[in-house]
Design brief:
Layout: E1 6-10, H1 17-31, E2 37-41, H2 44-54, E3 60-63, H3 80-85, E4 90-93, H4 96-101, H5 106-118, E5 122-127, H6 131-135, H7 139-150, E6 163-166, H8 180-198, H9 200-205, E7 207-211, H10 216-223, E8 230-233, H11 240-247
Parallel strand pairs: 1-2, 1-8, 2-3, 3-4, 4-5, 5-6, 6-7, 7-8
Helix pairs in contact: 1-2, 1-11, 5-7, 7-8, 10-11
The structure holds 2-phosphoglycolic acid.
Amino acid sequence: MMRKYYIAGNWKMHKTVSESVALAKELAKELGPCGERVMVAPAFTALSAVAEALKGTNIVLGAQNMGPDLQGAHTGEVSPLMLKDLGVVAVILGHSERRHSYLETDALINKKVLLALAQGLEPILCVGETLEEREAGKLEAVVGTQVREGLKGVAASDLARVTIAYEPVWAIGTGKTATPEDADAVHAYIRVVLESLYGKPAAKAMCIQYGGSVKPDNAAELMAKPNIDGALVGGAALKAETFGPIVKFRS
Ligand code: PGA
């Protein structure tokens, strides 16, 4: 059976509303009804306009983060209710930039994962080690903990709506990609952790994306690995001419 891949573009803190709409329209035109699952995550400010631009296409609308509460006195936060209201389907949670620059903990990320699921959203739970952790031999301990803590309390029946993104921190925005072999080995380890939590069939069915300097020229070899089911793309997602070929890595 041909696998369906899930390729997501994280636009981070880039693009005004009109720039975001322009890119969304270009992508819609370039990708057409392609066989892979595609998601884009613009800035909060552009979600509404991009939702409109993507209407009638297969491109899924995602958010880059969300608050851990439904509503109330939480200055500066965005609720899953507000995201759903705009047509957001997926939400990136626990990105390493959130973990490191904004000190998000596993417990906070877990609260968001549970809330996203309860609200019918599809979380992408990001995990990954720093270079320091990798060199200290802590890769499995760090990634294993992030997966276990991030999924704490997630019911087996909800797991199919969760995607895991393995993003080695040292490979994000640096031009350094993990070798396909190295990435695949970590993905395989994540499946072992998932199996211990949810059993073999669920672990096998889980979509695990790779992220960190994915580009048109390395996408195909990453995707060819048995445990890599898609990509979470940052820099190369900002232009149709680089995101398009990543999505169409088979051609
Ligand atoms: P990058 O970012 O593709 O620019 O390395 C990936 C990410 O942070 O999701």
